[in-house]
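To: structure subgroup
Subject: Chain for Friday's discussion

All,

I'm putting the inputs and outputs inline so they're searchable in the archive.
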Amino acid sequence: MDICVFGAGSLGSLVGGLLADDHEVTLVGREPHVRAVRKRGLQLAGEFDRTVYPGATTDPPASADLVLVTVKSFDTAAAAAQLAGGAFDAVLSLQNGMGNEETLAAHVSAPVLAGTCTYGARLTDPGVVECTGVGGVALGPPDGGSSELADRVGTALAAGLETTVAGDMPRRLWAKLAVNAGINAVTALARVPNGDLVDGPARTVAHDAASETARVA
């Protein structure tokens, strides 16, 4: 499958790198990372230890079988505008936050799938991405249920990623948001690593943030 990873930062580079052995992958990212991948390949470190050789560019291709969108959610509208007019069979958001699928669908003609990803990734140097934790990808129609397209994309991703095709993506998106609210926001504000929330004084704040998200959901 011809796969474009739009947003080749930490997560996008890791996901694209893990798929590059079995698919024709193009990473769309920024310099100097793109230049390094072109010159030396993409080095996978941490939980994985190998070098792969995806394509790398700063501009999205005009066509692809699948686009994986991994930009930060505040960049979704800009990414959607850049992808508009492209000939794609499917677009899959692997982003945090809510509403990314609707933003993408308003610009691209291809069907949009929802997804979550729990792999940990860190871009340590240009051309080098470290996997800090092996997780999984869940994907499916953004309104829930099943589809032949989701099954086909899930089969393709399973070549390099732990993949689940799920019929309850709305629930999974909210659950991921609750986890992010309870962990990411609190650790950033308290300037502590994730593990300090388990028994530290910020545990109550993390619990309350996740619970509030669940009530909103």
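Points worth raising on Friday:
The first strand starts at residue 2 and ends at 6.
The chain has a mean pLDDT of 96.

D.
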